């Protein structure tokens, strides 16, 4: 049901704003497109961004839930919906704390523009990961094949997205803004941990 909800959100986006949705997905791979949509005021509180974040949270929580069900781990005594909602809340909490910490660090170090660009890039990459992993999660849930064959590549894809975010953070602050390497290292470690 939750994957159906995520698919419905994507269908709604495809019908109502297909060009903008495609540009957000392209922005995950193209820094030029990412900066262009940021100049057009794309941010975390715009309708498109909120809906794509919902897809990301649902798909990522479902991946964690599926991984937990296959390999047994946390909350094994609870039903599936409770486990899924637990992972939804963990993801929301982690990203909320991360964005608050990023804004505080940006305020303290007076690098608000870099932090805003990094947060926007993180959102775009996460939203793209959610869109790309949705079909894999549907197949993992509904097909008779062993879900492990889809879970590990999906986790690998999330790790690659994480590395891409680190690379973009390095590009934003280290190369283009002339921030020192030590400050950059501490900043990225604080945001990503």
Shape: globular
Which structural class do the helices and strands define? mainly alpha
Low-pLDDT ranges: none
What's the helix count? 8
Strand content: under 5%
Q: How do the SSEs run, as a string of H and E? A: HHHHHHHH
Instruction: Give the biggest sheet.
Output: none
Which value, in Å, is the CA radius of gyration? 17 Å
Mean pLDDT: 84
Helical residue percent band: over 70%
- The total beta strand count reads 0
Alpha-carbon distance between the termini? Answer: 32 Å
Throw out a few tags for this protein.
mainly alpha, 8 helices, 193 residues, single chain
Brief account:
With 193 residues, the chain is mainly α. It has helices at residues 2-16, 18-27, 31-39, 47-71, 80-109, 112-142, 148-176, 181-192.
């Amino acid at each position: 049901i939750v994957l159906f909800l995520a698919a419905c959100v994507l269908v709604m986006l495809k019908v109502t704003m297909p060009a903008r949705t495609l540009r957000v997905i392209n922005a995950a791979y193209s820094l030029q497109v990412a900066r262009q949509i940021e100049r057009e005021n794309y941010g975390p509180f715009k309708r498109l961004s909120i809906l794509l974040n919902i897809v990301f949270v649902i798909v990522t929580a479902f991946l964690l839930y599926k991984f937990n069900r296959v390999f047994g781990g946390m909350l094994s005594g609870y039903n599936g919906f409770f486990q899924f909602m637990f992972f939804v809340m963990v993801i929301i909490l982690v990203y909320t704390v991360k964005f608050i910490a990023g804004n505080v660090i940006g305020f303290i170090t007076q690098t608000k523009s870099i932090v805003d660009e990094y947060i926007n890039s993180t959102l775009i990459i996460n939203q793209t990961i959610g869109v790309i992993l949705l079909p894999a999660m549907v197949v993992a849930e509904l097909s008779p094949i062993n879900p492990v064959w889809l879970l590990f590549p999906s986790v690998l894809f999330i790790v690659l997205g994480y590395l891409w975010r680190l690379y973009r953070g390095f590009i934003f602050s280290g190369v283009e803004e002339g921030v020192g390497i030590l400050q950059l290292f501490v900043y990225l470690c604080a945001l990503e941990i």
